[in-house]
Amino acid sequence: MTEQMVSPMTAAELLAMPHNGYRYELVQGELRQMAPAGRQHGRIAANFIGSLIAFVKEHNLGEVHSSETGFIIDTAPDTVRAPDVSFVARERAEATAEDRGFFPGAPDLAVEVISPNDQYSEVKEKVSDWLRAGTQMVVVIDPYQRTATVYRAPDDICVLTEGEVLDGGDVVPGWKMPLADVF
């Protein structure tokens, strides 16, 4: 018996899929289903996005996106990732035609909130994908350890504890948020 080859899914096919209550990402053409987030995850992401969006709007720095926004970070085969919170600098957002599709490229900031069903290897893979695609800052929020791990490069990693302040650095200049406010 011969195995039938399945062609990789494309970003266009992912975008055309009917909404069924799940979120999906596309990793090298492979569709990955993600369960809806739980209450704690949603609250933490909302706390983060609330602070970030208010600052970004006040200073006209760019666009803040929620977890429903997909970013095409690789093609042939396609990879579309959707962080829990993201930021795209104004210059990059304005240089990209507004459209109903996924954002073509990586966000400048990607935030991932660890969920109970996340595996460490999957989170590590996402961080690696973001950095490889050009994301300047990846923040991984761990609600169980009450920490935030900030990645600016594979070898530039900083772990913040609940008593410290998260700083947007040169990615979101001037934005700061006490980590305790995230939780």
Structural overview:
The chain has 183 residues and is α+β, with helices and mostly antiparallel strands. Helix content is 27%, strand content 32%. The chain has helices at residues 11-16, 39-58, 90-95, 120-133, 179-182; strands at 23-27, 30-34, 62-66, 71-74, 79-81, 85-89, 103-104, 109-113, 137-142, 147-153, 156-161, 165-167, 176-178. A 6-stranded mixed beta sheet has the order 3-6-8-9-10-11, with helices on both faces. A hairpin with an 8-residue loop joins strand 12 and strand 13 (176-178). The longest helix is centred in the N-terminal third of the chain and has 20 residues, at 39-58. It starts with 10 loop residues before the first helix and ends with a helix.
The count of β-strands is 13
Model regions low in confidence, pLDDT < 50 over at least 5 residues: none
* N/C terminus separation: 54 Å
Radius of gyration computed on alpha carbons: 17 Å
Mean pLDDT: 92
Question: What structural category arises from helix and sheet content?
Answer: alpha+beta
Outline the biggest β-sheet: 6 strands, mixed
Strand content: 25-35%
Widest sheet, order of strands? 3-6-8-9-10-11
Question: What percent of residues adopt helix (DSSP H or I)?
Answer: 25-40%
What order do the helices and strands follow?
Answer: HEEHEEEEHEEHEEEEEH
Number of helices: 5
Dominant shape: globular
